[in-house]
Design brief:
Helix content is 29%, strand content 37%. By secondary structure, the protein is α+β, with helices and mostly antiparallel strands. The protein has one domain: 4-Layer Sandwich (Anthranilate synthase), CATH 3.60.120. 42% of the residues are buried.
């Protein structure tokens, strides 16, 4: 499908006020869309469903599904060209003092021995002077962040979200499983050859140790890569790739999600205590920020190599089932004339409140840059 037709179908669907998602998996040239044919709010029951899932930070709340069976699927491999446009004009509303006090309280609680780590977040509100063209924002995200999971998601009964997240929650293809432990942040200044301080190294190790332990009951032959420095937009992070094989595919996805989400990279440790601290002290609703989203139990017909004779091709074709879920970071929600940006950072005993504030400012620039640059 041409990119012009692809965008045209999405525009018409959005004009009809019908649910959709447009997205691209990391490091691919395919841009996909799921256009739901009705406005029903479908919800996940047990993660055996097939469709595009959009889940909140609070796992007790409903995860939304755009079912493949109720939707039209689109695909293009053409570049979505960016039209020239003037930078948006806006006023910023943030909450620096509250965030500084929040970090101070987090560090105090860790030093008292009640937490190992807690991830504290905030939202920044941009009051826009004129409406955003959501597909222009989506195209800009695609062009700027090819190594991220980029998306534009809409449901008339939920809202409109866009983002470019660097973090995989889990990926399953047949029985092969992979995830990552991502933590630590610093500015990218032209090189991956950088030094990391003790706070960030320890924070990343907490995440990778937790994920490895959480997988033991469900994944065999678990392997962890060496810790590496990776680039995500204008930032650097520490990452460990974690792979293995599912023990029981039919029962594993929901159990794995409950084990992994929310990860220590967006919540903290111990998980239940960290989540309670967040709910008691952040004083705002994260909604879908630091939740997860992506393809759930997607089936793809795989054809054999072209070297086989045509008569054999049909016999050897098979359906491959895959799930690709991503943590919803570097995202924003659009409400009327406001763009709400969500951002956070991991707090440990070594955290300095002013530094943690600056880290959140740097992270907002990832998503803010597609509006103002």
């Amino acid at each position: 499908m041409t990119s012009k037709d692809f965008l045209g179908y999405i525009n018409k669907h959005y004009d009809k006020n019908l649910p959709f998602v447009a997205y691209s998996l990391p490091n691919t040239f395919e841009i996909k869309a799921v256009l739901q044919k009705d406005e029903t709010l479908y919800k996940i029951e047990d993660f055996t469903e097939t469709g595009f899932v959009f889940a909140p930070f609070d796992i007790r709340k409903d995860a939304i599904l755009l079912p493949y069976s109720k939707s039209r699927m689109l695909l293009t491999t053409e570049d979505l060209s960016i039209d020239e446009y003037e930078p948006m004009s806006f006023e910023t509303e943030n909450n620096k003092q509250h965030h500084l006090h929040l970090v101070e309280k987090g560090v105090e609680t860790i030093n008292e021995g009640n937490l190992e780590k807690v991830v504290l977040s905030r939202k920044e509100i941009l009051k826009l002077k004129s409406p955003l063209d959501i597909l222009k924002v989506f195209k800009t995200l695609l062009n700027n962040y090819n190594s991220a999971f980029v998306y534009c998601w809409y449901h008339p009964k939920v809202g409109l979200w866009l983002g470019a997240t660097p973090e995989t929650l889990l990926s399953i293809e047949s029985n092969r499983f992979s995830t990552m432990a991502l933590a630590g942040t610093q500015d990218y200044v032209g090189t991956l050859d950088v030094s990391w301080n003790t706070k960030e190294i320890e924070e990343q190790k907490l995440v990778s140790d937790y994920v490895e332990k959480a997988l033991q009951e469900h994944i065999k032959d678990v392997e962890l890569s060496d810790v590496q420095t990776v680039k995500a937009g204008r930032l650097l992070h520490l990452k460990t790739d974690i792979t293995g094989e599912l023990m029981d595919h039919s029962k594993s996805i929901q159990k794995l999600i409950l084990k992994l989400h929310p990860t220590p990279a967006v919540c903290g440790l111990p998980k239940i205590d960290a989540m309670q601290f967040i709910l008691d002290n952040e004083h705002y609703n994260r909604e879908f920020y630091s939740g997860f989203l992506g393809e759930l139990n997607k089936e793809t017909k795989v054809k054999p190599r072209s070297g086989r004779r045509n008569i054999e091709n049909a016999a050897y074709a098979f359906n491959k089932r895959s799930t690709n879920l991503f943590v919803n970071l570097r995202c924003m929600q659009l409400q009327d004339s406001k763009a709400i940006l969500y951002v956070g950072g991991g707090i440990t005993k070594d955290s300095i409140p002013e530094n943690e504030w600056l880290e959140t400012v740097n992270k907002t620039n990832t998503i803010k840059s597609v509006i103002v640059s």
